[in-house]
Amino acid sequence: MKETSPRETKAAIVVIDDDIHILELADLILGRRGYQVFTAPTARKGMEIIAARLPELVLLDYMMPEMDGLTALREIRTRFPNTYVVMFTGKGNEEIAVELMKGGAAEYILKPFNNRDLAERLDNVLRIREIELHNKSLQQEHVRLLQEIDNWNQDLQKRVREKTDALQKAQSEIAQSEKLAALGYLSAGMAHEIRNPLNSISLFIQLMRQNTIDPEQLDYQGKILKEIDRIDDIIRKLLDASRRTRTITNDVAIDRVIDNALDVFSPQIETGKIRITRSYCDSPPLIKADPAELEQIFTNLFLNALDEMPSGGHLEIRISEENGRVVVRVADSGGGISADTLPSIFDPFFSTKARGTGMGLPVVQRIARIYEGNILVEKTSPEGTVFRLDFPAYTLS
Ligand SMILES: Nc1ncnc2c1ncn2[C@@H]1O[C@H](COP(=O)(O)OP(=O)(O)O)[C@@H](O)[C@H]1O
Ligand SMILES: [Mg+2]
Asked: What are phi and psi of 391, to 5 degrees?
């Protein structure tokens, strides 16, 4: 007879029966077959062995004095779902057998049994058990994978939502920055417009004062001058408030300023199918300017370019040096500027957009002029527009 090492190859089987002869017989037959056999004369004892050994199979007698087979069967099946149970039943108890199968038994064997038959049927049950457990684990894996996919989906949706929120926030921040800049320049412009006539009034009153000796007139004129001073004071404060805190000019690397301005648009660029090309000459000369103001120029130009390319397009930024000037070209593949609007685009409040402020380009022009720069439309057609900016190149001594 071939000796197999049971622990390595064969399953563990717990046999529970109140008939000691059955236990011995089963031990002998199954032990020879190579199974690891444990026997128990009561369901209680059997349950302890099952809990300790977690066997593949239990051979369980239906008729036992202490705990009936069905109850034991149910307990094993609930507590140890991977342990399969084969029931012993007496002949003539076929209805009970059906009941047992419903209760979770894998098979039933009629007593008295044929030795060879017993072993073969247990082999079968163990094979089926293998397959079923494998199936179950595949199914669990399937469910787990579905769950994982679901989690990914949710994660993705969450990220899309976050990106969309960030995009909206970025968009409104950019628009806000354009409006604030516009407001600053507007109030600065207005202040100058008011100050000039105010100066004239003040001058004329002072002239009148020199030709008056009437104390009542002198009193009135004095009061008018005081009020003029008050208005002047208010305007000065308004100017201070609208002016950027630092007006110091720095040596600015324009390529870096442009990259910063582009950064703000990156969420829009990613989602809006906008392709960006940067053609920068090697280390462009520095410009003397306030970097924040320069950035505002490009923010406004890029905003306009993106407005013209709602369903995607190409934005190209070129930097070069021409005759001692730093030249920047901002080219888009938008719809272009029509001949009749072209003369007005730098006018304050001129806009062809339903919700445009018409202050984007006027602000660009104003800032450019502060730093001795120029802005113009170099080329425009239904294929796109090129804005050309130039500033004096500043070379370090
Ligand atoms: N890149 C461009 N392509 C086509 N038209 C442009 C472009 N940039 C500006 N414009 C035109 O110039 C007008 C004025 O621009 P702007 O001063 O920025 O104000 P807004 O953008 O609020 O309309 C725009 O309404 C548009 O008609
Ligand atoms: Mg604009």
From this structure: -135, 155
Backbone angles phi, psi at 3, to 5 degrees: -95, 120
Indicate if the pLDDT at residue 249 is higher than 80: no
**What per-residue confidence (pLDDT) applies to 190?**
82
Which amino acid type is present at position 78? Answer: T
Cα end-to-end span (Å), the chain: 103
Average pLDDT, the chain: 89
By most ligand atoms within 8 Å of CB, the mutation choice from 344, 359, 361, 385 for ligand 1 is 361
Nearest Cα residue to atom 9 of ligand 1: 304
Instruction: Evaluate whether 325 touches 392 at the Cβ level (below 8 Å).
Output: yes
Separation CA 332–CA 55 (nearest Å) = 75
DSSP 317: E
234 confidence band (pLDDT: 50, 70, 90): confident
**Per-residue pLDDT averaged across 156-170, rounded?**
87
**Position 41: which residue type?**
P
Do residues 21 and 46 make contact, with C-beta atoms less than 8 angstroms apart? Answer: no
In the beta sheet, which residues pair with residue 40? 16
Residue nearest to atom 22 of ligand 1 (CA): 356
Asked whether the whole model's pTM tops 0.90, one would answer no
Residue-range domain boundaries for the chain:
6-113, 168-242, 250-392
Q: What is the pLDDT of residues 274-309, one digit of tens each?
A: 999 999 999 899 999 989 889 999 999 999 999 999
Note residues around ion ligand 2 (Cβ under 5 angstroms). 304, 360
Q: Residue 113 CB: number of other CB atoms within 10 A?
A: 16
Q: Which fold has domain 6-113?
A: Rossmann fold (3.40.50)
Predicted pLDDT of residue 313: 94
**Domain at 250-392, CATH class:** alpha beta
Domain 168-242 sits in CATH at 1.10.287
Q: What tokens does 74 get?
A: 């149910």
CA–CA separation, 281 and 290 (whole Å): 22
